[in-house]
Amino acid sequence: MSHFTNILKYAKPYKAYALGHIVSNIFYALFGALSFVALIPMLDILFQKDAVVPTEAPVYQGINNIKDFYKDFLAYHVNQYAQDDPQKALIFVVSLIIVLFLLKNIFSYLAYYFMVFLRNGVVRDLRNTVYKKTIELPLSYFSDQKKGDVMARVTTDVATLQYSMLPVLELIAREPLMIIFTLIMMLLISMKLTIFVFVFIPLSGWIISIIGKSLKRKSDRVQKEQGSILSTLEETLTGLRIIKGFNAQEKFYNRFQESSDRFYHFSNKLLNRQNLASPTSEFLGILVISILLWYGGQLVLVDQSLDGSSFIAYMGLAYNIMVPAKAISRGLYNIKQGNAAAERIQEIIDAKNPLKDKDNAVVKTGFNKNISFENIWFKYENDYVLKDFSLTIPKGKKVALVGQSGSGKSTIANLITRFYDVNKGAIKIDGTDIRDLTTASLRNQLGIVTQDAILFNESIKNNLKLGKDDATDTEVIEALKVANAWEFVKDLPQGIETNIGDSGNKLSGGQKQRLSIARAVLKSPPIMVLDEATSALDTESERLVQVALENMMKNRTSIVIAHRLSTIQNADEIVVLHKGEIVEQGKHEALIAKKGVYQKLVEMQSFE
Predict the structure, then answer these.
(1) How far lies 301's CA from each of 50, 281, 292, 297, 556, in Å?
(2) What is the band of 18 on the pLDDT scale with cuts at 50, 70, 90?
(3) Which CATH superfamily is domain 451-524 in?
(4) In 3-state terms, what secondary structure has residue 184?
(5) Model pTM?
(6) Tens digit of each residue's pLDDT (9 = 90 or more) over 122-142
(7) DSSP characters for 417-449?
(8) Sheet of 527-531: strands edge to edge?
(9) Neighbours of 5 (CB within 10 A)
(10) Average pLDDT over residues 597-605
C-alpha cells in the first residue's frame, strides 16, 4: 500500500474534483439505500391488504424506534395520498422508487464526471514527473539501464496504473459509503440479521486475500518482460542496417520470440489469477445470501420478529452490499497488480541525481577569463581514465586533445559539460568550480558538436532552434551559411522547413554533421566543444565540415578532441594524452620536432 499512498500524493492538486466526487457519492449511496427501503410500503400494499394503517402522523420517539417510525410515516402518507385506493398507492410508491433511482444515477454520473478529471490529471502529472526525472538523471544512470525498460516504465507501467490502481480512487469514497448507508438501513430493519452477516464478511475477505497475494509478483514479471520486448525492438530499429548486413535477422527474431513467449506465459498466469477473483467473490456473496435466506426465514416464520416485506427489502439491501464489496475486493487485486508498476515507476522518481544543482548554485551569465582543469581524477567504474590531469585554456584559444582510444579525450568533453562529475580535483570557469554553477547556465556557455550528429525527426529549422528557441528564419539561414550547409538546404523542396526524418536519415553523414555545427553556431556560445566532429566522414565531406568548423571557431574558445591531423594542426595548443595523463604539450611544429608520441600518432594518422 505504500506505493499506492505515493501515487495518491499526485491527487493533491485536484482536491476540488475529489470533494465533488465525495459529495456526489454521499448522495449516490444515500439514495441507493433508500431506494431499497422504499420497497417495503409497496410490498405491504401488495401482500398485506389487511394491514392496519395509521390514521395519524406518527411521532418520532428516538433512534430505537426509527424503523417503525419510518414505516408508519411512509404508510400514513401513502394512505393519505391514495385515499383507500390501492392502485393510487401503488403508483405513488413506484413513482417514489423511480425518483430515488433517478437521483441515485444522477449523482453516480456526477461522481464519475469529477473522477475523470482527478484520475486523468494524476496520470498526466505522474507521466510528466517520470519523464522530467528521466531527462534530469545523469548519463551514468542510463549506462546501467536498458532503454526499452525505461521506455516501458514511462509508458506501459503508467498505463498499467491508469487501468489497475487508479480506478481504485473511484472506490475509495463510493463503495465504502454505499456499504455504510446500506448497513445502517439493514441495522434499522433487523439488528440480529445484520450481526449474523458480520460473521461471514471477514471470512470472505480472508479467502479473497489468499488469492491476491501472488498478484504483485506475477505482475512484476510481466512488466519486466514487457521492458525486455521494448528493448529488443528499440535495438532492432536502431541497428536494422547492421542486422541485415550481417544476416542476423533470425538471431534477433529468436531473441524477440523467446521474450514474447515468456511474456505470453507470465501474462496467462497473471490473468488467470485475476479471472479467479470475480467468480470467487460472487460465489462467496451468493453463499452469504443463501445463509441469510435460511436465518432470515427463521426470523419471519418461526420467531416472527421480522415481517415478510421488511425481510424482502433486507435481502435486496444484502445483495446491494455485495456489489460494492465485490468492487472493493477487485480493487484490492488491482492494487496488488498496480503496486508492481508503481514500484518500478517510483524507482525512477526516487533515483538519486548526483549532478543536481546546489541550493546556492551560481547562475553563470558570461565567459571572461579561462577554463582550468585542476588535478582532476576520474573513473567510470573501477579504473581511473584521467589521472592528475591539469590544463588551463585561456579565453579565445583553440586547444586540441589527441591520443589513442581510451586515453581520456572524450572524457574531458563529458566532464566540462558536466555529464559526469570529477572524483578528485576541480574544473573551473573564470575561477568558479562548475559544480557551484547551475547546470543550465553552465551549458548555456557551451556549444557541443559530437562525432554522431544527433538530429531529431523535425524540420531543419526546429533542429537548429534547439539551443535558441526565439531565433528568426534569417538567423537560422545565417547559421547554415557559416556551417557550409546552406548550399544544400536551399535546394531542398521546403528549404529550412524540410523534415529530415528519423535521426536525419534523409541526409548524408556530411550534411547531418554540418547541420549539427549550424545548431551550435545558432546558439552562439563562447565555448565550443568538438568531440571528434569529423572522424566519421569521408574526405570530401570532411573538407566541407572542416571549413564550417573553422568558421564556427573564430573568436571562440574551443576544445577540440581530434581524430585527424587536419582538424588540429592550427590549434594554439595541442595536448597529447596517454592512459589518462598528459605526455606532451605544445604547438604542432614543436611537437613534431620532439619526435615523440605526437609524431608517431601523426605518422599513424591514429587520432582516435
Answers:
(1) 19, 30, 14, 6, 100
(2) confident
(3) P-loop containing nucleotide triphosphate hydrolases (3.40.50.300)
(4) helix
(5) 0.70
(6) 888 888 888 888 888 887 777
(7) TTSS--SEEEEEETTEEGGGB-HHHHHHTEEEE
(8) 446-449, 527-531, 557-561, 398-402, 573-578, 581-586
(9) 9
(10) 80
With both helix axes pointing from N to C terminus, report the angle between 39-47 and 86-136 in degrees, rounded to the nearest 10: 150
Give the pLDDT band (50/70/90) at residue 300.
Answer: confident
Q: Do domains 2-349 and 451-524 have the same CATH topology?
A: no
Total Cβ atoms within 10 A of residue 496: 19
Q: What is the pLDDT of residue 231?
A: 75
Q: What is the 3-state secondary structure (H, E, C) of 218-235?
A: HHHHHHHHHHHHHHHHHH
Would the pLDDT of 110 be above 90? yes
318, three cell numbers: 444484502
Torsion sign (Cα): 207, 212, 213, 214: positive
E strand spans, 343-415? 370-379, 384-394, 398-402
What cell was used for 530? 568538438
Comparing CA positions, the residue from 70, 40, 36 lying closest to residue 320 is: 36
- Contact between 423 and 378 under an 8 Å Cβ cutoff? The reply is yes
605 is written with which cell numbers? 594518422
299 neighbors 175 (Cβ within 8 angstroms): no
Q: Give residue limits of the domains in the chain.
A: 2-349, 451-524
DSSP 459: B
Per-residue pLDDT band at 83 (split at 50, 70, 90): low
Question: Which position has the grid cell 548555456?
Answer: 444
Alpha-carbon gap, residue 495 to 185, rounded angstroms: 74
pLDDT digits (tens, 9 = 90+) for 318-371: 777 767 776 776 677 677 767 777 888 888 888 888 888 888 889 988 888 899
Q: What is the DSSP letter of 578?
A: E
Per-range mean pLDDT, top range of 255-269, 294-308, 548-562: 255-269
Parallel, antiparallel, or unpaired: how do β-strands 384-394 and 432-433 relate? unpaired
Closest CA to 188 of 176, 180, 200, 178: 180
Q: Please give the grid coordinates belonging to residue 453.
A: 550528429
CATH for the stretch 2-349: 1.20.1560.10
401 forms bridges with which residues in the sheet?
A: 561, 575
Biggest CA-to-CA distance, the chain:
125
Task: Give dist(CA 378, CA 81) in Å, integer.
Answer: 91
The candidate with the shortest Cα–Cα distance to 58, out of 48, 71, 46, 47, is 71
HSE toward the beta carbon, residue 392, CA cutoff 13 A? 5
C-alpha cell at 262: 515468456
Q: How confident is the model at residue 372 (pLDDT cuts 50, 70, 90)?
A: very high
